[in-house]
Amino acid sequence: MKDAQKFVGLDSSKDTVAIADSGRGEPRFNSTIPNKPENIRKLMKSLGNPENLLVCYEAGSSGYGIYRLLLSMDIECMVVAPTLIPKRSGDRVKTDKRDSIRLAQLLRAGELTSVWVPDEDHEALRDLIRARHDAREDLQSSRQRLVHFLLRHEIRPPLGVRNWSVKHREWLKTINI
């Protein structure tokens, strides 16, 4: 990690990014902007020299687009796992503004641990594996719903026919409900 002069915490959601920054003083909330590359680029330029900035944000469902954007601007960025962010006891109110201020504060204090950021190929493969896993779970749930529906209506497959075997699927085609 370089010697940054300004520490920036981002709390990103699907539509917006809340920004807080901290120099040597207390972190202050900067603004909330639309989560679009051109808006983020413009705001980062307004914060100062890229070599003096250190930015962090929580890993989330939006992926690593912000990380890659900031790297392309020569701004050092950390992606932090939400589970690795220290929490104060009793601090249960979560708002984008408070989260971004807290991230800037913890970043300045050196209390955040970054996660490994996959390259675009690894990220695409990870997304594909997750999508396949989700599809398999959906298929299993649908099969269970159908079997339970048939049982509730006292429709049972012939003896010796295992669920979802070829014979079972052929039998399903013959059912009139």
Written description of the protein model:
The protein is of the alpha/beta class. It has two domains: 112 residues, Nucleotidyltransferase, domain 5 (2-Layer Sandwich); 54 residues. It contains five helices and five strands, in the order E-E-E-H-E-H-E-H-H-H. This is Transposase.
What is the H/E string?
EEEHEHEHHH
How many domains, in number, for the residues?
2
Structural class: alpha/beta
Distance between the termini: 66 Å
Rg measurement, Å: 25 Å
* CATH fold node name of the largest domain: Nucleotidyltransferase, domain 5
User: What amount of the residues lies in strands?
Assistant: 15-25%
Number of helices: 5
Low-confidence stretches: none
Helix content: 40-55%
Task: Kindly report the average pLDDT value.
Answer: 91
Number of separate strands: 5
Label the CATH architecture of the largest domain: 2-Layer Sandwich
- Quick one: CATH class of the largest domain? Alpha Beta
What's the story with the biggest beta sheet? Answer: 5 strands, mixed
Give me the CATH superfamily of the largest domain. ATPase, nucleotide binding domain
Order of strands, main sheet, comes to 3-2-1-4-5
Shape: elongated
